[in-house]
From TrEMBL:
Signal peptide: none annotated. The keyword Glycoprotein does not apply. This is TIGR03557 family F420-dependent LLM class oxidoreductase. Keywords: Oxidoreductase. It comes from the Bacteria. GO terms for molecular function: oxidoreductase activity. Residues 14-180 form the Luciferase-like domain. InterPro entries: F420-G6PD/mer, F420_G6P_DH-rel, Luciferase-like_dom, Luciferase-like_sf.
Length: 314
């Protein structure tokens, strides 16, 4: 049986509403909540981007059993790896061990605010070195690190869960998958069985646009989600929401609706989630597109979607 998560999409929701949504997601029966960690929204129309770690602290305090994770944090530019470890350890302690740190190589959209965006090859080298700092700190070690990209003269974490914090990595190909083999699992945004590690958790994410009117949902998905089809080599490089708007200008409503189930049809939404379960993913986080439409989605999740997914054997 897979675990199902609710995505706290910072790009489309204000911070206090995100905390309320997390509490409601726990009530609705979701197993975990995944939060995006952005400085900017993908598109101006989304309209938000609060600091994910402040939201996580509030969510950890306001919930009881909901597992939490970042999906995902980049530890190579906007944050120093030692600071990422401290953030993760603090949320792990506040949640009494309910937190998993999801990491990835990041996007120019968010990371250029702290300096020039490195070439892809360099970013992967930086990510590998960041893990050499984060993992031992989370394990309770004192770290002395002098590397190519990062220096840590001396650091230890004074507050952390007794069992540490699991670390999972966003993967999209052979290089990132090889790096993830030393970690506790993988994160992917495609239902591809090759992006899993045997015997370890695999986290997927699927976008939905639920609502009673399919036509309205299709329009909302185009307005808020048309960036998603640009693929990772483009997503990682564009610098700001205006660039994403220009790059997605020729995406049509039909294009988005072909990738995102829209409207009230329960079977269509279940089928989209089922692709990840069939590919062997142990955890699937769901995104409801549209910041103002979360309560209706969570109510529907509680009454129809989650029971259907679990009855389906997912």
């Amino acid at each position: 049986m897979a675990n199902f998560g609710y995505t706290l999409m910072c790009e489309q929701t204000a911070p206090c509403d995100l905390v309320d949504d997390a509490v409601r997601a726990e009530e609705a029966g979701y197993d975990f909540a995944a939060i995006s960690d952005h400085y900017n929204p993908w598109l101006v129309e989304q309209g938000h981007s609060p600091f994910a770690w402040s939201v996580l602290g509030a969510v950890a305090y306001a919930t009881q059993n909901l597992e939490l994770m970042t999906m995902v944090t980049c530890p190579i530019r906007r944050y120093h790896p030692a600071v990422v470890a401290q953030q993760a350890a603090t949320i792990g302690a506040m949640s009494q061990g309910r937190f998993t740190l999801g990491l990835g190589a990041g996007e120019n959209l968010n990371e250029h605010i702290a300096g020039a965006w490195p070439h892809r090859t360099q970013r992967h080298e930086m990510l590998a070195e960041a893990l050499e700092i984060i993992r031992p700190l989370l394990a309770g070690e004192t770290v002395h690190h002098g590397g190519t990209y990062f220096d840590v003269p001396e650091a230890r974490l004074w507050d952390r869960p007794d069992d540490g914090v699991p670390v999972v990595l966003a993967v999209s190909g052979e290089d990132s998958l090889a790096l993830s083999k030393k970690l506790d699992g993988t994160v992917a945004v495609a239902p591809d069985a090759s992006l899993r590690l045997p015997g370890k958790p695999a986290y997927g994410q699927v976008a939905l646009c639920y609502g009673p009117d399919e036509s309205e949902c299709r329009k909302r998905a185009l307005d808020q989600w048309r960036w998603f089809g640009l693929q990772w080599p483009v997503l990682a490089e564009l610098p700001d929401p205006r660039a994403f708007d220009a790059a997605s200008a020729f995406v049509t409503e039909d294009d988005v609706a072909a990738a995102v189930p829209c409207g009230p049809d329960l079977d269509r939404h279940v089928a989209a989630v089922r692709k990840y379960v069939d590919a062997g993913f142990t955890h699937v986080a769901l995104v409801q597109i549209g910041g103002g439409h979360q309560e209706e989605f969570l109510a529907w999740s509680q009454s129809e979607l989650l029971p259907a997914l679990r009855a389906d054997g997912a």
